[in-house]
Amino acid sequence: DGEPSEQWEEYQGAPTGADLECEGWRQEAALRMLNNNLDPEVAEKPEELVVYGGTGRAARSWDAYDAILSELRSLADDETLLVQSGKPVGRFRTHERAPRVLIANSNLVGNWDNWDHFHELEAEGKIMYGQMTAGSWAYIGTQGIIQGTFETLAELARQHYDGDLTGKTVVTAGLGGMGGAQPLAVTMNQGVCIAAEVDEERIDRRIDTGYCMEKADDIEDAIDRAEDAREAGEPYSVGVHVNAAELLETMLEQGYVPDVVTDQTSAHDALEGYYPDGYTVEEADELRADDPDAYLEASLDTMERHVDAILELQERGAIAFEYGNNIRGQVQDHRGMDDAFDFPGFVPAYIRPQFCRGKGPFRWAALSGDPADIHRTDEAVLELFPEKDHLRRWIDLAQEQVQFQGLPSRVCWLGYATDSEEHTERARFALRINELVAEGEISAPIVVTRDHLDAGSVASPNRETEAMKDGTDAVADWPILNALVNCAGGADIVSVHDGGGVGIGNSLHTNNHVVLDGTDLAAEKAAAVFTTDPGMGVIRHADAGYEEALDEAAHSNVRIPMYDE
Ligand code: NAD
Q: Is residue 553 classed exposed, middle or buried when 0-12, 13-18 and 19+ CB atoms within 10 A define those classes?
C-alpha cells in the first residue's frame, strides 16, 4: 500500500468542531467517520489501513483514501459517491434525499466467492476486505461491541445461572478490536475472565484502555489469580500471553474446567487472522510472507486442536459457544471435523429472540468531538424509555467503565416496538436527538449507525442466521432488501459487504448511517430508516416462523403480506 497518506498523518483521527471541510454535514459525517475508523486510538493497525477483525480495511490503498477525501470535500448535496471495495469509482447527480455515499465491499459471484479467489484479486489491488464496520466507516473501537458482548453474557447468565456471572470463570482468547471487549463484558456481569492472546501488545492495550485488569506471567499464574477472585466472588479479568490452543490443552491436562469457554481470535481468516501454535507472532508473520501454504496448514492444525479442546471442555461440563468467528466452519470445511458444530453459535443460543423484535446494536457518534453531547444523548435515551431498567443499568455501566475512543460514541440495543406510539423505538430516539441538535442542546450533528450484525441485515449461516427455524440460513435476499429499503428510506451512507465476521463466501451484510443535523430532512430520513431497518428484522424472522417476531409484528402493526392471523 505504500507509505501512509500525509493527510492521515495530519488528521490522526476525525476532525471535530463546527467548521466543515465539506459542502454539507452528510458529506462531512462520511469524512469524519472514515477518519475516525483510522484513528490510531480506534483502529488496530491504521498505518496499514486495517481497522479490526483480521484485515478489515477502511480504504483499499492510501491513494484511494486520499481520493475518497477529495471527492467527499467537493461532493454536492444532491450527488452520490460510489465506493467499490474501498476505492472511489464514480459520482452521480441523484437528489438531496438520496444517500451521499454508496459502498460495496468484497462481494464476489457465488462460484468464485472464496478466499483463494479473493486473495488473488487482493494481491492485484482489485478488491478489499471490508469486514463489517471497517469498510463502511462505522467502527467506533472496542466500545462498539461491548454492549453486545455484555448482553450475550447476561443472557447466558440468565439461562444457566442466577442472572449474573458471580463466582463463574469464562475462558476465551483474542484481545483484538472486538475480542478485547470480552474481559470487561465478563466483569460487568460480575464474573472472572481468563483470555489468551498471542500478541502481548494487544494485552497491554486492553489494560491501558480499561478493558482488562491484569496480565499473568504464565498459564499457572492466570489460573491461580482467577481462582482467587472466583472464590472471593469478585469480578476479575486477566490476559495471558499464550496461544489459545495451548491454554485450553493445559487446562485439560491439569483437570481444570472453567464454567464457560468461547473464543474471539480471528479464526475466520486462517491466513491473516489466526496464529498457529509453536511460533512467536514475528516468526509466524515471517512464515506467512515466505510460505503462505505452510502457514495455512499450521494455522488450521492449531484450530483443530483448539476446537477439540473446546469440545472436550464441554464434555467435562463447561458451557461452550462459538463467538462468531467461524472457527467451527473452518475445521469442518478444512479438517473434516464432523463434530465441530456440537457446540452452538452465540446467535441461536443467546441473541435471536432480540433480533425477532428488531433489536440490535444501534450506535451513534458526536461529530462535535465533545463528550458532553453524548452525555446529553444518554439522558435523552433514559428520559424516553424510563421503564427500561436494563437500559439504565447499561448506560450507568457504560458511563462508569467504558472509555471513549476517537469520536465520543454510545451503543445501545433498541428495537422496533412502537408500543402504540407513532414511531419505532429507534426512530423515537433518533427524532429526539434531531430535536436536541435543532435546539442547540447538542452542539453539532450526531451520526447514527449500527453494526452489520443486526436484526435484519445479515445472511450468515454459521453466525447470525445459524439454524434458522425454516432452514433459510443461506438465503441472502434479506440483507439485499435491507440495503435497498434503507436507500429508499434515505439513509446517508449505505453499504453491502461479503464475508465480515466469518470470512469470504460465508456472509452478506449491510449497514447504514443517518446524520441528525436538526433539519426536517434529517427527521424524515430518520423516521423512515429507523422503521425500515429494525422492521427488516421483524419481517425476516416472522417469515421464518418465529413466534416472537409474529408477536412483534402484531403488536407493532408491521404489515406482512400473506400472513394469515
Ligand atoms: P482482531 O484481528 O482485531 O483480533 C484477533 C486477535 O486474536 C488478535 O489480537 C490476535 O493476535 C489474536 N489471535 C489470533 N490467533 C490466536 C491464537 N491462536 N491464540 C491466541 N490469540 C490469537 O479481530 P477482532 O476484531 O477482535 O475479531 C475477532 C473475531 O471475532 C473475528 O473473527 C471477528 O470476525 C469475530 N467477531 C465477532 C463479533 C461478535 O459479535 N461475536 C463481532 C465482531 C467480530
A: buried
- Give the H or E element holding residue 102: strand 101-105
Active site amino acids? 412
Q: Could you tell me the distance, in angstroms and rounded to a whole number, from the CA of residue 105 to the centre of ligand 1?
A: 20
Alpha carbon distance 315, 325 (integer Å): 21
Pocket probe for ligand 1: among 131, 266, 306, the residue whose CB has the most ligand atoms within 8 Å is 266
> What is the value of ipTM here, to two decimals?
0.98
pLDDT per residue as tens digits for the range 142-173: 888 898 999 899 999 999 999 999 999 999 99
pLDDT in tens, 465-511: 999 999 999 999 999 999 999 999 999 999 999 999 999 999 999 99
pLDDT of residue 564: 62
Q: Which domain holds residue 67?
A: 6-123
Residues 91 and 198 both lie in one domain? no
**How wide is the angle at C-alpha 480 spanned by C-alphas 457 and 563, nearest 5°?**
75
Task: Work out how many domains the chain is built from and give that number.
Answer: 3
Q: Which residue has the cell 495530519?
A: 10
- Same domain? 183 vs 323: yes
Shared domain for 328 and 359, answered yes or no, is no
Cβ–ligand 1 contact at 133 (below 6 Å): no
Looking at the fold, whether 363 and 456 belong to one and the same domain comes out as yes
Best mutation site among 264, 300, 323 for ligand 1 pocket (most ligand atoms within 8 Å of CB): 264
Domain edge (last residue) among 344, 363, 394: 344
User: Which residues, other chains included, contact 405 with Cβ-Cβ below 8 Å and sequence gap of 6+?
Assistant: 39, 41, 42, 140, 141, 142, 143, 209
Pairing of strands 493-498, 101-105: parallel
Count of H-run helices and E-run strands, the chain: 20, 17
- Whether 142 is in the pocket of ligand 1, judged by its Cβ within 6 Å, is no
Report how far residue 346's alpha carbon sits from residue 515's, in angstroms, rounded to the nearest whole number: 31
Nearest Cα residue to 261 out of 310, 213, 306:
310
166 with 97, same domain: the answer is no
Strands 87-93 vs 508-516: parallel, antiparallel or unpaired: unpaired
Q: How far apart are the first and last CA of the chain?
A: 57
